[in-house]
Amino acid sequence: MTHVTLEIAGFSYTSCSPFPCDATRTCGLTGCHPTGQLVKAFGSLKTLIAEEYGPQVDLTLTLLDEGVPEHIRAIIEAEHPPIPLILVNGRLTRIGRIAYDRIKKEIDAALEIKGADQGTRMREPSPPRS
Question: How far apart are CA 61 and CA 86, in angstroms?
């Protein structure tokens, strides 16, 4: 079975997005509304990911409050990405917020690439975002 890791990194007290958590939100999450909090959004995302992918996706929340792990520090120093960071198989995505549809596209592309590496026939992965 193909497997993907998804890591969300940010501070426990920060927002899950630079956009307001109101009726016009486009994140695709409902379990955390109207808090806009990263930790609650992670819980809501985790539920959706588990329903959609089961054991194919490992989801991790890395809180930076007590220190920044070396792999995250290296990414921040090199890329200066927005927080929260969204990493798929250790690769930084440019999503910059907890948004289910965008994260799902990244997971699907990673599953397709891994599936192709394992010799199964799959469609071409989406091009990287700029």
Answer: 10
For the chain, the domains span: 4-117
Dihedral of CA 27/31/57/93: which sign?
A: positive
Instruction: Give tens-digit pLDDT for 11-20.
Output: 999 988 877 7
Global confidence as pTM: 0.83
With beta carbons less than 8 A apart as the criterion, state whether 45 and 29 touch.
yes
* 82 within 8 A of 8, measured Cβ to Cβ: no
Structure confidence at residue 58 (pLDDT): 97
CATH number of 4-117: 3.40.30.30
